[in-house]
Design brief:
CATH class of the largest domain: Alpha Beta
Oligomer: single chain
Helix content: 40-55%
Number of helices: 19
CATH topology of the largest domain: Rossmann fold
Number of strands: 13
Distance between the termini: 37 Å
Shape: elongated
Radius of gyration: 26 Å
Length: about 400
């Protein structure tokens, strides 16, 4: 694999598993970093999850978050395996993990020790609740941090109850902020020559994403209700039924959109009605205005209304399925659904949205477990095949036959 991109020359030792950490390191791999996935002998547990579509005998989800990486197997509970990892740390820029707090110290992988091996090393840890605080050592998953972080109370509908964001927002937000923190630490190291530990909490990420919801609550003192498809501070800004399929209308922000919307639906009288003369007024009179708009939009099909609104420059859109979003011309023009070949099958992936002028992201399939071990050890540490076999016999890559696991 030839690395290109703005992060070319940066090496990340990736100890992370599941989704949060792998998502963050995948974004960095897309941008040119060499990401070496350090897996236990049994591999990332996502590989062996046989619920859902399978690729290469593994869960297809593994392909979603581990493209453009290399894989080597090390038993970090084995002294020889840990010694190899230490040698790799001397050649690397970053160690990235998503262990629960306390695990790194137990495995002798904590930043204080690693920085004695390589003072320039950056350690980035993504965990459910971060390294301190009363919840630090709690188990946490995407769903639980979404629930605790406040956002889940805003999703859903007042009559149907809360709903979580189904595309792993708890995990992926943690990984995304992990990548951001790591890049900040790399920029600082460029000035100082020394590494730093970065601590990312998935829960913190959920709080950060609340944004104006926190500010609104602080000012008003009233918690925001479930938003459904809209927002309590804007109107019209929600989904509406049409003669067939629903659409969303976002005729807010500047008043020209509201006026254009009223003209487009042939209700110019609404635009001059003092009750609806501003966004604040429309919100205050939502119960009166919403039925008026809803009745008009039910008179034409989704396609007909979208044609009308596009010509009138009114922000509106269909509610696309995943299949429709993938096939959309904008998606294709931006190359946001690349494909990779895996054992003769062609697999579609969600692409990287970071576009860097003069550089095009290349995509390679997620690695086979341990496939890059021989080449990584040879190129980085000068370990030839004979020595690698000796290390294997000593349990560096897993337990030799007949050896009992150390507790």
């Amino acid at each position: 694999m030839t690395q290109t991109g703005p992060l070319c020359g940066i090496t990340i030792l990736d100890l992370s598993m599941f989704i949060a950490g792998p998502f963050g390191t995948m974004l960095l791999a897309d941008l040119g970093a060499e990401v070496i996935k350090i897996e236990p002998p049994t591999g990332d547990p996502v590989r062996s999850n046989h619920i859902g579509p399978q690729v290469r005998g593994e869960n297809a989800q593994f392909q979603s978050y581990n493209r453009n990486k290399k894989s080597i197997v090390l038993d970090l509970k084995n002294e020889i395996g840990l010694g190899i990892f230490d040698d790799l740390v001397r050649t690397a820029d970053v160690v990235f993990d998503n262990f629960r707090p306390g695990v790194l110290a137990r495995l002798n992988l904590d930043h204080d020790r690693l920085s004695t091996i390589n003072p320039a090393i950056i350690s980035c840890s993504v965990s459910a609740f971060g390294q301190d605080g009363p919840w630090a050592k709690r188990a946490g998953y995407d769903l639980t941090v979404q629930a605790l972080g406040g956002g889940m109370s805003l999703a859903g509908h007042p009559t149907t109850g809360p709903a979580h964001i189904p595309f792993h927002l708890g995990d992926t937000a943690g990984g995304l902020f992990g990548a951001l923190g790591l890049l900040a630490a790399l920029a600082e190291r460029h000035r100082t020559g020394r590494g730093r530990r970065v601590d990312i909490s998935m829960f913190d990420a959920q709080i950060a994403l609340l944004g104006d919801e926190i500010t609104n609550y602080a000012v008003s003192g009233a918690p925001s209700p479930p938003h459904g498809s809209g927002h309590p501070n804007f109107f019209p800004y929600q989904s509406f039924a049409t003669k067939d399929d629903p659409i969303v209308v976002a005729a807010v922000g500047v008043e020209k959109y509201w006026v254009a919307f009223c003209d487009a639906i042939d209700r110019p009288d609404l635009a001059v009605d003092a009750r609806f003369g501003s966004n604040a007024a429309r919100v205050a009179h939502r119960e009166t205005l919403e039925p008026e708009i809803a009745a008009v939009l039910k008179t034409k099909t989704r396609a007909a209304w979208l044609d009308v609104f596009t010509k009138a420059d009114v922000p509106a859109a269909p509610i696309q399925t995943v299949a429709e979003a993938v096939a959309a011309p904008q998606t294709q023009a931006r190359k946001m659904v690349p494909t990779v070949a895996v054992d003769g099958d062609v697999i579609a992936l969600a692409g990287n949205p970071v576009k860097v002028e003069g550089d095009e992201t290349c995509y390679e399939a997620a690695p086979v477990l341990g496939a890059d071990g021989p080449s990584v050890l040879a190129e980085r540490l000068g370990i030839d095949e004979a020595r690698r076999l000796e290390l294997a016999a000593q349990g560096a890559f897993g337990l030799p036959a007949g050896e009992k696991k150390r507790t």
